[in-house]
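Example record used in the benchmark description.
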Amino acid sequence: MLRDKIIQGLLYKALQERLIRETSKKAKILQEVVSECKAAENSKVQASVMNEKLSHTVNALKNFRNYRNQSKNNQKNEVNCKQCGKKFMRRRNVRHTVQNAEIGMEEITG
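Model output (structure tokens):
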């Protein structure tokens, strides 16, 4: 009788329906019903905490992407070379060592 009152007073309707189905198939004792209710409550709390953490993570990623896009737009077109000290125009996928190798080859062949 107490078991039925606990099942009747549950807030989670899906759990309530499942417990009613299972108690009609086999006789569940009060302790089993109480332990299942506690487990369901704990899982709901953990799921809400995980969803809360997930939303914070997404916000952090969005802020990071915006920061990276802004920094690309603010880059200088001229860059000082760390090896020779000259100023060069910024180019994509061109390295100073490749330019030095080409200059060195011209001096040898030239």
